[in-house]
Design a protein that fits this description.
This protein has a 7-stranded mixed beta sheet. 27% of the residues lie in helices and 30% in strands. A hairpin with a 2-residue loop joins β11 and β12. The chain has a single domain, classed as Rossmann fold (3-Layer(aba) Sandwich), CATH 3.40.50.880. It is α/β, with parallel strands linked by helices and 210 residues long. The protein is globular and about 50 Å long. The protein has 6 helices and 12 strands. The longest helix is centred in the last third of the chain and has 21 residues.
Amino acid sequence: MTNTLRVTVFDYGAGNLHSLVKAVEAGGAVVHVETDPVLAVRDTDALILPGVGAFAPAAERLAPGREVMRDALLAGLPTLGICLGMQLLFDGSDEGPGRGLGVVEGQVTKLVATQVPQIGWNRLEDITDPLLVASGLDVAYYANSFVCRPTAEHAPLVSAWSEHDGDRFPASVRRGNIIGTQFHPEKSSAPGVAFVREFLQFAASLRSAS
């Protein structure tokens, strides 16, 4: 079916993608899971960088096709980076070696909090991303020890904030068609699934426009 949205999930080989794939398929898209970073951005309508794993091994998987994927994102490929996937949009991480995609300038650092990791529900504040607004997602599920710290120049790309144990950090970022969420929308109940659907509709609208 040529009208069906094609979505590629880039698999770093680090965990179970079942809930994410099911959420995307529930939105009416056809999902392809790809381990090659170059093939992940070829012949697809949208890319998802999933939220399972650690930064260093994921960056190692990304390395052979980093520039190709970065170019595709900057050229307008609709992309959703979830948790670790959002962190890979940044330059690098204190969690381990390796380079991220660098489409958002900044570094990933450990939560400055007594209770780490953060596991559970947390509020989203100062939401500006229209997809978040449309989905009604203002409380989301987190499972993270590290968070993204954009440079002052790229701080305006933050499209929602959360706070954990006194540490305020970006809940989401947005640069053009690139969206990152530190939380897991696929685990954030009905509003989270609605947000995934909003992203798919956004990607479909871009395909129709082109």
